[in-house]
Design goal:
single chain, 196 residues, alpha+beta, 3-methyladenine DNA Glycosylase, Chain A, eight-stranded antiparallel sheet, 6 helices, globular
């Protein structure tokens, strides 16, 4: 992240900086998003876990090309793609190059914790945002926030100090499950599941 962070600094990632940050391969972006602070209407925290997806990846929603559902994956770099799983949980992804994206799997709660607790119905900090569905519930992310750039309201994305990274196989998928494209902050108590 050194080159990208050096170019952007510690201000919110927006405008041309947003394009530079996201117009790269999804693995690089997934790693560099770790420790960035994601806020939605001022509520959120540091990203601690991500997964990368590519157009030629059978596990990706873009594998069969553009559809009405995945259209946001073909937007500009830094676009937001939101989808529903199991008919009940929203998941949020950040678009890199067209058809590739990074799933945000977990954040460390920092700002707006009282609101997160109310939305999630638990005061266990390590459980507030420790999974893609949980963090969307905690941050009140739904389909209304789909297909917007990350430098548009209600989003804010800001780099913080880099952190040590671990990687492993993605989870919750059956296709191309061996790809080691899941990344996390080493030692974080806020991950969705431990790395093995």
């Amino acid at each position: 992240m050194a080159d990208i962070q050096g170019a952007i600094g510690t201000a919110a990632i927006e405008g041309e900086g947003l394009t530079r940050f996201f117009e790269r391969d999804a693995i690089s972006v997934a790693r560099d998003l770790l420790a960035c602070r994601l806020l939605v209407d001022g509520i959120g925290g540091r990203i601690v876990e991500t997964e990368a997806y590519f157009p030629d990846d059978e596990a990706s929603h873009s594998f069969r090309g553009p559809t009405q559902r995945n259209g946001a994956m073909y937007g500009r770099p830094g676009n937001v793609y939101i989808y529903r799983i199991y008919g009940m949980h929203w998941c949020v992804n950040f678009v890199c190059t067209p058809g590739s994206a990074v799933l945000i799997r977990a954040i460390e709660p920092e700002m707006g914790i009282a609101e997160m607790i109310e939305r999630r119905g638990t005061d266990a900090l390590t459980q507030l945002c420790s999974g893609p569905g949980k963090l969307c519930q905690a941050l009140d992310i739904g389909i209304a926030f789909n297909d917007r750039l990350l430098d548009q309201r209600p989003y804010s994305l800001t780099p913080t100090a880099p952190a040590p990274i671990i990687s492993g196989k993605r989870i919750g998928i059956t296709k191309n499950a061996e790809a080691p494209w899941r990344f996390g902050i080493s030692g974080s108590r806020y991950l969705s599941k431990p790395f093995r």
